[in-house]
Write a structure and sequence with these properties.
Helix content: 40-55%
Largest sheet: 6 strands, mixed
Distance between the termini: 37 Å
Strand content: 15-25%
CATH topology of one domain: Rossmann fold
Length: 431
């Protein structure tokens, strides 16, 4: 499989170089030259397949022969060694839980898959040490830190916005040590992301270090997120209704992977991009004007993105045809007040505890189903509610029991380096 840059289609890359470089030399995101259509027989038989078999079928076309099937299967088995349950909580409405991995967040899948593929390429090609440079608005940092911890030949540098991630999220990315370094940025997530992209094009850094990114701009982080939708479909296929998935959306990598899976033939009829007050895509679908904005801080912090990088990939899936995009994608945005009300309302009615991101996904799904009651809807719960303990306990006025891994985490010491501008990042990387 070849990939092209969305900034310059004449520039192409194989899978390995797309993973190693993260971005094209023109700063463009990579996109596969062909979207593989899967056979109908695969979807007819999906109920009887193992997780690994489903994931192999989905991802193999995009890896090609660059990783032998036996090695790719090992990577997938390590990536998917936990469950992805779909739980029905209302009539025609279910939740897909994506928080059963080691850092209790959906990004464990992409981080583990990328760590496996990058580790394979380093061992195979005798590549010098690689520095994974990543910006996080919350869960990415912890997932990447855990996924790459101790991987030989890889250093990890994580940038996160000071005071804008939860305490548990911060502990997950600042307490591991070894090959993991955390930089606490005096700014927003967008500032962190801009610094990362700038570093990739800075020859004074790239001459000294081989940089790659573990944000969803990297194809090895982005593509495996399609696994969620295949595994969810396996569980809800029996509902025999039109399907809609509501995805809490920040940088739009997750929902973009779902839309790619739909393009490959997965029988999902519609998607909802559920936004918090960072509503650039919600406004775009109303006005057809894409207007990035400075991100606003909310209680669903992993979605605090004012210029989502992956939306350009969403547009590419639909060949930049706005009418086709609208047929497959709706978007709604919700305030922190609405989010808190949803957490309380769902708990009062069902006993289920949402995290703030899942609550936004739930609200988006309910909004869509108001006018589409012939659909079966699934919203994504992208993080365990304990990761947002202070917010959730305050809304519910009750204590939430901590999983053992979180209790152990609280005993560890935070270690980070504070920076406030690109020159300080550059100095750190050069040193």
């Amino acid at each position: 499989m070849k990939y092209f840059s969305l900034n310059d289609r004449s520039h192409t890359s194989n899978f390995e170089n797309a993973v190693l470089n993260g971005l094209g030399p023109d700063r463009g995101l990579y996109f596969p030259q062909e979207v593989k259509k899967l056979p109908k027989q695969f979807f007819e038989q999906i109920s009887s397949l193992l997780k690994t078999e489903i994931a192999m079928e989905a991802i193999s076309p995009y890896v090609g022969d660059e990783i032998p099937p036996s090695e790719l299967e090992k990577i997938i088995k390590q990536t998917l060694d936990f469950e992805f349950p779909v739980k029905k909580i209302e009539e025609n409405l279910a939740v897909l839980e994506l928080f059963h991995g080691p850092t209790l967040a959906f990004k464990d899948v992409g981080a583990r898959f990328m760590a496996g593929t990058l580790g394979y390429f380093i061992k195979k090609g005798n590549i010098p040490k690689v520095t994974v440079l990543v910006a996080t608005s919350g869960d990415t940092g912890g997932a990447v830190a855990r996924g790459f911890l101790g991987v030989e030949g890889i250093d990890v540098v994580i940038l996160y916005p000071k005071g804008k991630v939860s305490e548990i999220q911060e502990k997950q990315l600042t307490t591991l040590g070894q090959n993991i370094k955390a930089l606490e940025v005096d700014g927003s997530f967008d500032d962190c992301q801009t610094m990362v992209k700038t570093a990739f094009l800075d020859p004074e850094i790239t001459r000294q270090r081989k940089l790659t990114s573990a944000n969803s701009i990297n194809v090895a982080r982005w593509l495996p997120q399609m696994f969620y939708y295949f595994l969810a479909y396996q569980q809800v296929k029996k509902e025999d209704q039109k399907l809609v998935f509501s995805v809490p959306s920040g940088n739009f990598g997750n929902i973009c992977a779902g839309l790619l899976a739909k393009e490959m033939g997965l029988p999902i009829h519609h998607f909802v991009a559920a936004n918090n007050e960072n509503d650039v895509v919600t406004r775009f679908l109303k006005t057809q004007k894409y207007e990035p904005a400075t991100s606003v801080q909310t209680i669903s912090n992993a979605m605090d993105v004012g210029d989502p990088s992956n939306f350009i990939r969403v547009l590419e899936i639909f060949s930049n045809n706005f009418s086709d995009l609208q047929k497959s994608l709706s978007s709604y945005s919700f305030s922190d007040g609405h989010t808190r009300e949803a957490i309380k309302d769902v708990h009062d009615k069902t006993g289920y505890i949402l995290d703030p991101h899942g609550a936004v996904g739930y609200l988006g799904l309910k909004k869509f189903l108001e006018k589409h009651d012939d659909y079966f809807g699934v919203f994504l719960e992208t993080a365990h509610p304990v990761k947002f303990l202070e917010t959730v306990e305050a809304v519910l006025n009750k204590k939430i029991q901590l999983p053992p891994e979180i209790e152990n985490l609280n005993q560890k010491e935070k270690r980070s380096i504070e920076i406030s501008n690109y020159d300080q990042l550059k100095s750190f990387l050069r040193d």
